[in-house]
């Protein structure tokens, strides 16, 4: 419950067009209810599954918004630690809808030069330094952003998502050697360059949010308007997600259960208070 209170405090302090806005918080004897703005477009994950891969221009527009929000967070000493397409939502189903980061349940306040060591997040999006059980910095968010960009462009995850411990950097480089699927042969060199800099095993050489935001592919200066032809492996992942849902309840990353009510109004997240 303490972590949920941190999530509320973090969200209440933020004001950015690409970060979910918290409308109100209600306290009762047994529950804390958080009301956020309504996001009618659903998860970015579902959008990509339904569309298949996107054009580079559309993906660039989405990534620009996410990166802007991450830069905003990092400038304020906030590390998200659970960036993934499921935690990115669209304001509407119309083309060109805004994308917003949600779910700050694993967020942490961190000074620019500080590190933390808690092992948490989502399999498939964990940075190499986390899998080596090393102390890590805000750069883990940039690794996760790289995974998101890859998913948007290639329609699949770039690496094995077993989440197992890695012994050292040599083993990490062997596991995370960046490769592109055969159907991504038409991917622009600008996009590949961005991915190489985001999915850099050495966190000290990995792009910061500001560097990513200035990259020509992200700004749109070198972004071709073409689609990639790829099989949609994400559909099987979605089917697995759906099979795990039980009565509208999903496990939260920190172990708490979350009820999410989506109607024609705001989204309401509910946590039961521990006694």
Model description:
This protein has 275 residues and is of the alpha+beta class. The protein has one domain (41-243): Transferase(Phosphotransferase) domain 1 (Transferase(Phosphotransferase), domain 1), CATH 1.10.510. It has helices spanning 2-12, 44-51, 56-75, 128-131, 139-154, 169-175, 189-198, 209-213, 216-219, 234-244, and strands at 22-27, 31-36, 42-43, 78-79, 88-90, 99-101, 108-109, 249-251, 257-261, 267-272. It has a 5-stranded antiparallel sheet, covered by helices on one side. A hairpin with a 5-residue loop joins β8 and β9. α3 (56-75) runs antiparallel to α5 (139-154) and α5 (139-154) runs antiparallel to α7 (189-198). 35% of the residues are buried.
In short:
Keywords: ATP-binding, Kinase, Nucleotide-binding, Transferase. Pfam families: Pkinase (PF00069). The protein is of the alpha+beta class and 275 residues long.
Q: Which keywords apply here?
A:
275 residues, alpha+beta, Transferase(Phosphotransferase), domain 1, five-stranded antiparallel sheet, three-stranded antiparallel sheet, 10 helices, 35% helix, 14% strand, globular, CAMK/CAMK1 protein kinase, variant 10, ATP binding, transferase, kinase
